[in-house]
Amino acid sequence: MEHRIVVIGYGNLLRCDDGVGQYIATQMMQRNKVSIKAVVDAIALHQLTPELVETLATVDLAIFVDAYLAHSELDEVRVESVAIAPAGLATGHWCEPSVLLAMTQALHHYAPNAYWVTVPGVNFEFGEHLSLVAHRGITAAIHQIERLIESFIQSALEPTLQSTLQSTLQPTIQPTRTQPCMKSG
């Protein structure tokens, strides 16, 4: 079974480290996006919008990627599971990942598994250059995203492998036929 996965990187490319999500999505686009077990698409956006609901309704896993303001240069990439927002209403033309999942659930009666990968940044001023902290974060985030994808595919395969193994290893029991007794004579 082929799984559909989307990496959605967002942020403002004109605000230095804020654009890190888009940089990561662009790098994910350039990687091998198709494997035997999954198709991985990547989308780079300025911000999350309700239009993404249609994409989310067609995937098994969504990974959102954004920057966060680091308190120190030692801060690391964060990975969090995204739960569906209890009351998902978009404010204007911008949304949080949990709100997008709630909207997807409301409209399609389905929402994919989702994670939010946030990358530390220290410079959110106007400009187009990434800080060293953000550069380090890009490498770590791509590694984390690849691990999330591999883990998701593996966990999705486990039930299939278990049922295949059970059917393969389960002995075939044939009912024995009894022959009627024959009387001689």
CATH C-level class: Alpha Beta
Fraction of residues in helices? 25-40%
Total strands: 5
- The CATH architecture term is 3-Layer(aba) Sandwich
Short description:
By secondary structure, this protein is α/β, with parallel strands linked by helices. Helix content is 36%, strand content 21%.
Characterise this structure.
The chain is an alpha/beta fold and 185 residues long. A five-stranded mixed β-sheet has the order 2-1-3-5-4. The protein contains four helices and five strands, in the order βαβαββαβα. The termini are far apart. Strand 1 (3-10), helix 1 and strand 2 (38-45) form a beta-alpha-beta unit.
SSE inventory with pairings:
Layout lengths: L2 E8 L9 H11 L7 E8 L6 H5 L4 E9 L8 E4 L15 H12 L4 E9 L10 H38 L16
Parallel strand pairs: 1-2, 1-3, 3-5
Antiparallel strand pairs: 4-5
Helix pairs in contact: 1-4
Give descriptors for this structure.
185 residues, alpha/beta, Rossmann fold, five-stranded mixed β-sheet, 5 strands, globular, disordered C terminus
